[in-house]
Amino acid sequence: MNAFDCNPEGELVEPGYGRVWVKFENDYSDGHHSERVLGLPAPPDERTMLDAWVDAVVYPETGDGHGSDPELGSCLTATVVSGHWTGMTWEWIS
């Protein structure tokens, strides 16, 4: 978890108006795993705009730099954990 996303007790704090929490999980074929939760600009309310938001805002936050070897497989997952789209999950596998 990013230190800017929690209070001194380590608890999630509200990401602020117009933002949502998104949990990122990064798994690699060599067994490496990492995860973090970030406050990101909220997605649009219209479902038709959701894919564009994922491409522009969510996907760039995936990964942790571990998978720079093109032979290394990965599964990158992003899940909205607050707000209107709570529970929506996207997965990128390579």
Structure description:
- The structure is a single chain.
- With 94 residues, this protein is mainly β.
- The protein has a four-stranded antiparallel sheet with strand order 2-1-3-4, with helices on one face.
- The longest helix has 9 residues.
- The relative contact order is 0.24.
Terminal Cα span: 24 Å
Q: How many individual helices?
A: 1
Largest sheet: 4 strands, antiparallel
Radius of gyration: 14 Å
Q: What is the β-strand count?
A: 4
H/E series? EEHEE
Mean pLDDT level: 82
| Spatial strand sequence of the major β-sheet | 2-1-3-4
Helix content: under 10%
Strand content: 25-35%
Uncertain parts:
none
Shape type: globular
Characteristics:
1 helix; 4 strands; 94 residues; globular; mainly beta
Secondary-structure map with pairings?
Blueprint: E1 19-28, E2 33-41, H1 50-58, E3 74-80, E4 89-93
Antiparallel strand pairs: 1-2, 1-3, 3-4
How would you summarize what this structure contains?
With 94 residues, this protein is mainly β.
